[in-house]
């Protein structure tokens, strides 16, 4: 249990540090956007490619683990979309609420917890899972906002979802790393050392950027829906994952990377998707902020319970 505490608390301490230095002006908002791009498009992909290109894909790919990780997301999507309609959630907020229930922050928080808790091996397994999981999350997020959109269907939305999937740097780097691993080639020393340097800044900078990007301003007017999304995202979704893992006979040593990804808080990209597709950006901002902070407790709960 001490190992779990010593992993989770520092991760969220750095996130809170990012929030503090943004609030005190040491990290102005106009700088967080280019820093986020640096992490998202260069540092995180370099870390993923380095891990996967050196690993044996067959040794880390687990079909039962993949199925047990993807199915809960699909179930939560269907259940939350149905309940949002039955409970008459305002249509302007409905799509954003639903995507906040299943779209997790894998690339920043999920990867950080997996790496610092499970090491290189756990991070490699999480990277493989994340490639498939991000495909599903992005598709379902755009589908959700399309279903509940106040506007009539437009062909441009299909282009938007395709662009989000094809251009996703985590997906691209994961697929490239897997392909390189299957090729049997070795990275040249120069390339490997370059990736090591880039990878070294990925997670610390990612956590600082997450903290600096959090905004509590929309919490009060969206508290009810933000808490509802957090209950589903941080409690129900990991619980469903555990049920599937145990039903498949998987032990914690095999399913922990998947559980960590499922237990990750609402992704920051939900704000971007809500903006692009006329969802509720205020609710997206509130859900990201609240669920990120609450996930420090729920990570301790899930990982401590397994311990």
Describe this structure in words.
The protein has 307 residues and is an all-alpha fold. The chain contains 14 helices and no strands. It has helices spanning 2-23, 29-54, 57-60, 63-86, 91-102, 106-147, 155-166, 169-183, 189-200, 202-213, 219-247, 252-262, 269-276, 281-306. The longest helix is centred in the middle third of the chain and has 42 residues, at 106-147. The chain starts with a helix and ends with a helix. The model has no long low-confidence stretch (mean pLDDT 84).
Give the termini distance in whole angstroms.
6 Å
What profile does the largest beta sheet have? none
Shape: globular
Query: Strand portion, in percent?
Result: under 5%
The overall average pLDDT, rounded, is 84
Strand segment tally:
0
Ranges where pLDDT stays below 50 over 5 or more residues in a row are none
- Helix and strand sequence: HHHHHHHHHHHHHH
Question: Number of helical segments?
Answer: 14
Q: Which structural category do the helix and sheet elements fall into?
A: mainly alpha
The percentage helix is over 70%
What is the rounded Rg?
18 Å
What's the structural blueprint in terms of helices and strands?
Blueprint: H1 2-23, H2 29-54, H3 57-60, H4 63-86, H5 91-102, H6 106-147, H7 155-166, H8 169-183, H9 189-200, H10 202-213, H11 219-247, H12 252-262, H13 269-276, H14 281-306
Helix pairs in contact: 1-6, 1-10, 1-14, 2-6, 2-8, 2-9, 2-10, 4-5, 4-6, 4-11, 4-12, 5-6, 5-11, 5-14, 6-7, 6-8, 6-10, 6-12, 11-12, 11-14, 13-14
């Amino acid at each position: 249990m001490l190992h779990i505490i010593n992993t989770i608390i520092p991760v969220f301490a750095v996130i809170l540090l990012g929030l503090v230095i943004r609030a005190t002006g040491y990290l102005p908002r106009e700088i967080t956007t280019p820093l986020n791009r640096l992490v998202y498009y260069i540092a995180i992909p370099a870390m993923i490619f380095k891990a996967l290109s050196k690993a044996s894909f067959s040794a880390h790919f687990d079909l039962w683990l993949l199925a047990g990780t993807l199915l809960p997301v699909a179930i939560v999507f269907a259940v939350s979309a149905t309940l949002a309609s039955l409970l008459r959630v305002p249509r302007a907020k409905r799509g954003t609420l639903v995507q906040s229930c299943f779209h997790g922050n894998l690339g920043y928080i999920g990867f950080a917890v997996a790496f610092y808790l499970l090491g290189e091996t756990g991070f490699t397994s999480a990277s493989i899972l994340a490639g498939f999981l991000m495909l599903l999350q992005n598709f379902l997020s755009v589908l959700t906002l399309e279903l509940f959109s106040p506007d009539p269907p437009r062909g441009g939305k299909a282009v938007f979802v395709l662009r989000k999937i094809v251009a996703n740097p985590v997906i691209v780097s994961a697929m490239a790393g897997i392909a390189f691993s299957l090729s049997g080639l070795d990275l040249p020393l120069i390339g490997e050392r370059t990736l090591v340097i880039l990878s070294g800044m990925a997670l610390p900078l990612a956590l600082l950027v997450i903290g600096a990007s959090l905004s509590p301003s929309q919490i009060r007017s969206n508290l009810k829906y933000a808490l509802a999304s957090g209950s589903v995202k941080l409690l129900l979704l990991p619980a469903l994952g555990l049920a599937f893992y145990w039903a498949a006979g998987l032990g914690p040593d095999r399913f922990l990377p998947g559980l960590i990804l499922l237990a990750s808080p609402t992704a920051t990209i939900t704000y971007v998707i809500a903006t692009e597709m006329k969802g509720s950006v205020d609710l997206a901002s509130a859900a990201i902020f609240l669920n990120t902070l609450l996930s420090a407790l729920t990570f301790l709960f899930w990982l401590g319970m397994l311990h």
